[in-house]
Amino acid sequence: MNSQPLNLTKIVVPEHPQWPSLSDQEKQAIKARISRKLEQQNAVLVAHYYTDAELQALAEETGGCVADSLEMARFGTVHSADTLVVCGVRFMGETSKILNPEKRVIMPDLGATCSLDEGCPADQFTAFCDAHSDHTVVVYANTSAEVKARSDWVVTSGIALPIVKHLAEQGKKILWGPDRHLGSYVQRVTGAEMLMWPGSCVVHEEFKAVALERIRRLHPDAAVLVHPESPENVIQQADVIGSTTALIKAVSELENKEFIVATDGGIFYKMQQMAPDKVLIEAPTAGEGATCVSCAHCPWMGMNSLQNLEQVLDSGGNEIHIDEAIRARAVIPIKRMLDFAAQQGIGMQDKGNA
Ligand code: 13P
Ligand code: SF4
Predict the structure, then answer these.
(1) Would the CB of 179 count as within 6 Å of ligand 1?
(2) With a 6 A CB cut-off, is 115 part of the ligand 2 pocket?
(3) Which of 1-5, 274-278, 338-342 shows the lowest per-residue confidence on average (mean pLDDT)?
(4) Nearest CA among 158, 262, 243, 151 for reference residue 197
(5) Domain boundaries of the chain, sorted by first residue
(6) Which of 101, 110, 130, 346 gives 20 to 30 Å between its CA and that of 85?
(7) What are the pLDDT digits (tens) for 122-158?
């Protein structure tokens, strides 16, 4: 970011939650109760690939969706349920509410935030935008409703490249926030003129380039899959760089037998389901310079469990509410993204493309 340095609040990363373990019988029983409650409440699960495998399986079994953040946003707009139960992090619930104000949107834990969202306070981001008012403001979906309301475009990792390319072709200068790694990657690929907000994902930032080189030497035939929130020296080693959907697609479509995966380990559930004969290896978060806090498991995504999902269906609490003036502004750049996705045929489960 090339204005005065910011004194951003230090992000407190929570401990990865430990849920009491359930026997297979208890899991079946709680899943059956949740399914009944979903039906009774005309509710549907909208889950992210990083959530617990049991939650992803339940979302699939009950007719909900398991997806990347772009498809999660789209799914809520086309499904007829009165209640969207968003299993993921807070910005995903907020995006659902912004797009579907008439629906009830609840989450197992409203404290499930995201380091990108927390590291981009709306007042400071607004001041940054005001200081560069000749720029088109493009924000990553991992932001608060207030930050989205200040933007011209919202993007997810599945659609950032084509949208920024489209804007750059029109000669627009871009103010990008908050993920500096994704922003730099988009800048390198598109050549767009971009000012960056200095945010990062505490999970992806921990992948280590030197240790990754070592693992690649041990598995020379493995394809390296990297989410673009990772540091540049990790992205440089990738065979495929993309959204969670794009990385899952790569495992089933590439001929390689082994894959080194640099993103949250929750994604392994879907990768294994799509390609059971492939070998998946976690990219290293340890090695030179390692201070692994989250170790490739997002602690906020980990706040979703079968137990608190059942609790929220019982209590009816944890509902997302958004001030109408903010919602009415935030919906414009989100709809812009979804309209662009529809025009370009991007975002239908199998078309992640970052
Ligand atoms: P995707 O949009 O690729 O699912 O990413 C969301 C996210 O939070 C990655 O850390
Ligand atoms: Fe946010 Fe990173 Fe967690 Fe994704 S993995 S929700 S970007 S903290």
Answers:
(1) no
(2) yes
(3) 1-5
(4) 151
(5) 24-114+301-322, 204-282
(6) 346
(7) 999 999 999 999 999 999 999 999 999 999 999 999 9
